[in-house]
TrEMBL record:
GO terms for biological process: DNA integration; DNA recombination. PROSITE patterns: CB, TYR_RECOMBINASE. The keyword DNA-binding applies. CDD domains: DNA_BRE_C. One of its GO terms (molecular function) is DNA binding. The keyword DNA-binding applies. This is Integrase. Transmembrane segments: none annotated. Residues 120-336 form the Tyr recombinase domain.
Length: 342
């Protein structure tokens, strides 16, 4: 098929490179990697299956054929397929902006429709569990790395990468806040880049614990870039896997004084075999689940949504869709409190 006269001949590989370059100015590295992973399948399909070497020739029929191929070739479930097609739609819309495909072609990308609740992760650390865990750590592991990490994650709702990015001088005990900063040049980018920078208020108790951690338990180390991380290991700034493993380990119920809710024997429990097997416990949760639980807890305690949005650096649309896990009964009772005198 001859190229349309009003379009610029563009290969799939060239379009993908331009798309990733454009997105890299506003998205975190992890997001760019996700785009690359999802779209490389489309480039592979164009090159090997459809023999499309010029995106000018791409049609709605081709996009439908790709969807069927991706579903069969990749064995994707409905949620994964939707994620990939949604990304493809964004990519095709970008291709329209650089005159690589016909106008409005993105509207012909058909993405699966999920029923309510499907595709939204509901795993979170409950408020009761969080308070019991922090009480235990406060008694038996006070101001340790684990205690300080879990305390920060729960009380602030910060992302794992944001907690990892904190330096000693980002903590201001006198004014009781943390400064969250985007520093990609020294390996601590924020998910939302400069838009994620902000001051996060702390209460006096949290400040006291952090101060005691710094004074008693924090190793006197710098990271590979000469910065002094707030949370530190003997080797410097903790990696994401260290943070993730610590959270999984301490959110196992048996770790903070409970009997196993799953009837397992400690002698043969797979989640206790080695340090990094803690995630095999059905009750252990990831740092992101702690964040989700923290956000839900803030909302349940009648903290206004805009305050939660600003503090946790998440839009209200994303807050409602992915993080707000209050039941409808809780929501209606909270609304009732505001409306009693109306």
């Amino acid at each position: 098929m001859p190229a349309r006269h009003d379009l610029i001949e563009t290969t799939p590989e060239e379009a993908l490179d331009l798309f990733l370059q454009e997105r890299s100015t506003e998205s975190a590295d992890s997001t760019i990697q996700s785009y690359r992973y999802r779209l490389q399948h489309f480039v592979r399909w164009c090159d090997g299956v459809a023999e499309v070497d010029n995106l000018n020739d791409l049609s709605g029929r081709d996009l439908h054929k790709y969807k069927l191929w991706r579903q069969e070739d990749g064995g994707l479930n409905k949620t994964s397929l939707k994620a990939q097609m949604d990304t493809l739609r964004v990519f095709v819309r970008f291709c329209e902006s650089i005159d690589a495909v016909e106008p409005d072609l993105h509207s012909k990308v058909i993405s699966p429709t999920l029923s309510d609740g499907v595709g939204q992760r509901d795993v979170k650390l409950g408020a009761e569990e969080a308070e019991e865990l922090l009480e235990y750590l406060g008694r038996f592991e006070y101001a340790s790395f684990a205690h300080t990490l879990l305390l920060l994650l729960w009380r602030t709702g910060l992302r794992m990468g944001s907690v990892r990015a904190l330096d000693l001088n980002d903590f201001d005990p006198e004014n009781e806040h943390l400064a969250v900063r985007h520093r990609p040049e020294s390996d601590t980018p924020l998910k939302n880049k400069q838009n994620g920078e902000r001051l996060v208020a702390l209460n006096p108790s949290v400040c006291a614990t952090i101060s005691d951690y710094i004074e008693v338990h924090r190793p006197d180390v710098a990271d590979d870039h000469g910065r002094d991380p707030l949370l530190a290991t003997d080797n410097g700034r903790p990696g994401k896997n260290t943070i993730r493993t610590t959270v999984y380990r301490w959110t196992r119920p048996c770790q903070y004084g409970h009997t196993c809710p799953h009837g397992r024997d400690k002698d043969d429990c797979e989640a206790l075999e080695v340090r990094w097997s803690a995630s095999k416990c059905p009750s252990s949760v990831s740092p992101h689940a702690v964040r989700r639980g923290s956000i839900t807890h803030h909302l349940t305690q009648d903290v206004p949504e805009q305050v939660v949005s600003d503090r946790m650096n998440v839009s209200q649309r994303v807050l409602d869709k992915h993080y707000d896990r209050r039941s409808e009964e809780v929501k209606v009772e909270q609304r009732r409190g505001y409306l009693e005198d109306v």
